[in-house]
Amino acid sequence: MFQVQDIKVDPDSRRAWRGDDEIVLSRKEFDLVLALISRAGDIVTRDELMRDVWHTTFWTSSKTIDVHLGWVRRKLGDDSRRPHLITTIRGKGLRFEKGDGGRRADGH
């Protein structure tokens, strides 16, 4: 189980929550969130995401990641103009932000 900010992801059951509310994600959306949250605080390159989520080493479409990221941000309640969960590091990749020192949503 990964928990960062108020997002929880269970890779075994392939379920995700924001606080106590379950978030319904498609297979690729879940894989994208998992790839990012499992490395929270680190920059994950677009090449790594294409390899790990789409299982390809070439760009099937330059917009594939951006489109899925838009859907994920909406479902997680992350403002694309001022994201606090997943930020784009221009020219490098994406990062799932740890937030306030990695404190869990339940205060522990």
UniProtKB/TrEMBL annotation:
GO biological process, one term: regulation of DNA-templated transcription
Keyword Transcription regulation: no
UniProt cross-references to SUPFAM superfamilies, sorted A to Z: C-terminal effector domain of the bipartite response regulators (SSF46894)
Keyword Ribonucleoprotein included in the entry's annotation: no
Single GO MF annotation: phosphorelay response regulator activity
Gene Ontology cellular component annotations, sorted alphabetically: cytosol; protein-DNA complex
Domain OmpR/PhoB-type: 1-98
DNA-binding region of this protein: 1-98
Keywords associated with the record: DNA-binding, Phosphoprotein, Two-component regulatory system
Name this protein carries in UniProt: DNA-binding response OmpR family regulator
Organism this protein belongs to: Nocardioides ginsengisegetis
